[in-house]
Amino acid sequence: MDKYKLEDDLKLVTQAQSGDIEAVGRLFDKHYRAMFHYFYARVGQRQQAEDLAGELFTRMVRHLPSFQPTGVPFRAWLFRIAYNLTMDHFRVGNGKELTSLEQASTVVQPEQSPVRQVEQQMTRDTLRATLETLVPDQRQVIILRFLVGLSLQETADVMERTLSAVKAMQHRGLKTMRASLAQVEL
User: Which domains are assigned to the chain?
Assistant: First the structure.
């Protein structure tokens, strides 16, 4: 994350800590999309991802008064909360993911051909199954890097790991995914 964005977040956090509701709203607007994508990648259900994102920002507001800048981007702090929420979500559900109505629906959307819908669902299913072949840390790296779009450094900050450790997890995760996908193609 470049210095300008880091300073911008810190300015908004300081304003929010001083009671500026508009600054809280701008933090929400700035980070909601990435947080939603993270949750959606983890739980695979739009409604649950929206619920978890809402809970994340509720917790952000609750814990914002105690936030202290440490040189790590504010977004990394948010992703740490998001990670904990995700783990809580799976613990409550005993690690089982339920099929959502959205995924089970066979209703064709008028703007998309049935063939295209089937292809997209197969791609999502294959991606989800391939991600499940990874160990949790590798899965976290792949989701943060490629589905959410964080840089290597941001991913390291979120996971509280060194840059070289994240690079190694990414390399091993991609290698495992390639091998898993090669077996699917057979």
Answer: 1-96 (1.10.1740.10), 113-186 (1.10.10.10)
Q: What is the largest CA-CA distance in the chain?
A: 59
Q: How many C-beta atoms lie closer than 10 Å to residue 60's C-beta?
A: 22
Using a cut of 0.85, tell me whether the model's pTM lies above it. no
Q: Could you give the C-alpha distances from 162 to 157, 165, 167, in angstroms and in order?
A: 8, 5, 9
- Lowest-confidence pick of 14-18, 144-148, 170-174: 144-148
Please state at what angle helix 21-43 crosses helix 74-92, rounded to 10 degrees. Answer: 50
Angle between helix 46-63 and 21-43 (nearest 10): 140
Q: Which carries the bigger pLDDT value, residue 14 or residue 3?
A: 14
Which tokens is 68 given?
């202290």
Q: Which amino acid is at 112?
A: Q
Indicate if the pLDDT at residue 176 is higher than 60.
yes
